[in-house]
Amino acid sequence: MCLTGYLILMETLKKTVAAASLTYLKQQEKMWSDPVLWNNHEELWSSAFAKDTQDLWDSVIHPRIKDFLKGDVLELAPGRGRVTDFLAKHLNVLDSLELVDQSEYCIEHCRKRFGNNLKYHVNDGMSLDMIEKNSKDFVFSWDSFVHIDKEVINLYLGGFSDILKKGGHGFIHHSYFFGNENPKKNKAGRSNMTFKLFAELLVKNNLKPVKQEMFKLNVKSSYDITLNDGFTTFVKV
Ligand SMILES: C[S@@+](CC[C@H](N)C(=O)[O-])C[C@H]1O[C@@H](n2cnc3c(N)ncnc32)[C@H](O)[C@@H]1O
């Protein structure tokens, strides 16, 4: 095989995931595209972390990302824009915010909500090929990687490595859970993940972990369960 053929094959293999992951992705896409799931629920999800979404932003998210939230920003899996609204309000006019979600329903909802000020993409649930390489100062995702399996997380970390500028940072809210390999069978749909594994996947994708933090969810009232999630901050060196 010639070198070009070999490189194309390696690139294809890098982006191929097991059939189980593909099935799960399709189920997720269907689930998050159902308006009934969303109606009146977003505030409830915030209550797992704080009093409401304003409090979630003020007390949990903003203090952890304020040093990185500038320039050209990508939010992965924004849903209907619960946190996007706060990200957008904290950026300057010359900054940019691009959104990628695998649900067309969610992206169209965001497009109606935020208009032409932002850029929007529907993806296949694993690839960031539509984003310019070395173009982002900050990548962010909230309450979505908690449900994404490690195979797909690995692909997204590769995508972040491609699209971040040198010195660009990322902040990902992910799960910290040991359970079934199928997240649907775990409490609150949490996927299996540890800090050690997340850090190893970052390093494998040429990214450097900066900080990892355990966060205790306050979900007893709404879901009658207790969970610890993880926050990982990283940089492209
Ligand atoms: C729980 S919602 C969270 C939305 C938003 N971040 C928030 O906090 O309100 C999960 C979102 O992740 C998206 N999503 C799930 N798996 C994804 C994947 N593999 N790639 C891209 N988006 C995904 C869903 O379409 C949905 O919009």
Count of helical stretches: 10
Largest sheet: 7 strands, mixed
The string of secondary-structure elements, in order, is: HHHHHEHEHEEHEHEHE
CATH superfamily: Vaccinia Virus protein VP39
Describe what is shown at a glance:
By secondary structure, the protein is of the alpha/beta class. It is built from 10 helices and 7 strands.
Tell me about this structure.
The structure is a single chain. Helix content is 39%, strand content 21%. It has 237 residues and is α/β, with parallel strands linked by helices. It has a single domain (23-236), classed as Vaccinia Virus protein VP39 (Rossmann fold). The protein has a 7-stranded mixed β-sheet, with helices on both faces. Strand 1, helix 6 (84-89) and strand 2 form a beta-alpha-beta unit. The longest helix is centred in the first third of the chain and has 14 residues, at 19-32. It is globular. The model has no long low-confidence stretch (mean pLDDT 92). It binds S-adenosylmethionine. S-adenosylmethionine (SAM) binds at residues 25, 28, 32, 42, 77-79, 82-83, 101-103, 106, 123, 125-126, 142-144, 147-148, 152.
